[in-house]
Amino acid sequence: MACSAQLEMRLVAEGYKLIAGADEVGRGAMAGPLVAAAVILDLACAPRGIDDSKKLSRNQRERLAEEIKQRAVAFSITRIEPEEIDRINIHRASLRAMGLAAKALRPLPEYVLIDGKFKVPDATCPQMSIIKGDGLSISIAAASIIAKVARDEWMREYDTEYPGYGFARHVGYCTRAHKQSLARLGPSPIHRMSFQDVHSYQYLLDLTGEEEDPA
Questions:
Q1: Which end of the chain has fewer CB atoms < 10 Å from its terminal CB, N or C?
Q2: Cα four-point dihedral sign 46, 52, 53, 58
């Protein structure tokens, strides 16, 4: 089943009018925020070409993100910072981000389609979790595009604030270049210290610091 509005139309037939899709990006990154978006599309005038953000080029995503924002009934973007991810873990952070994004919509949705296996806690309306939903539901795909474009832009800003890590290129994900910069510079303030790859580099730096301490 390709990305389409079939799920949304089925819910419309059941009597729901304001149907939102919610998705998050940055779950597997070692640095930067986890970002979620929620979108209520006007199915009658949804932009063409909406699909899972991972299947689109940067230019396609940025063009579609602007079109979606202009034509959507409502959209919202939320972010969970690295400190909170470290405190509550990435799974809870992902669900919390999508739940907050859905609650931030105005008007509030009557039904929410959630990307993934799990439902969000404390939902204020019915919801359906859909594995690989960003490739099946046009509403979830629209949310994935908006979230991806927003997060990438924030990571490019962090690349200027914390030079040397290459955030503009790998946007915080676990690449060889990212690991090499971690080994050279140590973790930055936006790294997720609870992630094993980041924690191990901090541990090595701590040991090195102890050995070089004249005291």
A1: C
A2: negative
